[in-house]
Amino acid sequence: MKKLFIALGCAAAMLCSSNIFAAGTINGNLNVQLTIGNGCSVTGGSTGGSVNDFGTLNFGQYSSLANLINGQSTGTSGAVQIQCTTSLPYTVILDNGQNASGSQRRLIGGVSPSNAYISYSLFQDAARTLPWNSTGAGILSAVGTGAAVDIIVYGQVPSQTTPAQGLYSDVVLVTVNW
After folding, report:
1. What is d(CA 88, CA 76) in angstroms, rounded to the nearest whole number?
2. Does residue 62 register a pLDDT over 80?
3. What is the distance between the alpha carbons of residues 122 and 105, in angstroms, rounded to a whole number?
4. Which residues, other chains included, contact 128 with Cβ-Cβ below 8 Å and sequence gap of 6+?
5. pTM metric for this prediction
6. Which of 136, 45, 57, 51 is nearest to 82 (CA)?
7. What DSSP string describes the chain?
8. What are the boundaries of each domain within the chain?
């Protein structure tokens, strides 16, 4: 009888323990989400510290300023682009640069202390009819499409007296607001 109880006990233990290793399935849900916030990003330029680089407008090398000289900006890898959230209004403002005289932008060069200047203007369009500055119609205003848009600055050096040879430069602050 003892042997019978021991045999039944062992059989019961084996039956119960086999359920521990049985295969099974558990189902559940994984919630996935992404929040799009309003904003803009700039590509094609570069960043260094806290300052973004919106590219370069290089008029080239000339021996005379007797004729108009045109140029346009480029980024580090082609055009500088801005991408803003769909339906988000934004503006792009260019200040008058570090060497302006009133509202006239100027490149500075020559030998200090008798620096020389070259006047220039910036435009929003290739025809150079819509000035680009920091007030009124001179501010580029647009609405984001969700796609990247080229931001090209068109420049023009008007005919003027040619100063001494050398490199002439300026830095213009670009501000994107949304």
Report:
1. 26
2. yes
3. 8
4. 70, 121, 154, 156
5. 0.79
6. 45
7. -HHHHHHHHHHHHHHHHHHHT--------------PPS-EEEESSEEETTEEE--EE-----S--SS-EEEEEEBTTBSEEEEE-TT-EEEEEE---TT-BTTBEEEEESSTTS-EEEEEEEESSTTS-SB-SSSGGGSEEEE--SSEEEE--EEEEPS-----SS--B----EEEE-
8. 40-177
Predicted local distance difference test score (pLDDT) of residue 161: 96
For 127-167, how does the pLDDT look when each residue is reduced to its tens digit (9 = 90+)?
A: 999 999 999 999 999 999 999 999 999 999 999 999 998 99
Closest by CA to 39, choosing from 93, 83, 92, is 83
- Taken as a whole, the chain contains a residue count of 178
Q: Which two tokens stand for residue 116?
A: 């020389």
What is residue 75's predicted lDDT score, i.e. its pLDDT? 78
* CATH T-level assignment (fold) for domain 40-177: Immunoglobulin-like (2.60.40)
Rounded mean pLDDT of the chain? 87
pLDDT in tens, 5-40: 565 565 555 555 555 667 899 999 999 999 988 999
Q: Are 89 and 145 in contact (CB under 8 A)?
A: no
Q: Which residues contact 157 (CB under 8 A, 6 or more apart)?
A: 59, 65, 68, 69, 70, 71, 118, 119, 120
Written as one letter, the residue type at 6 is: I
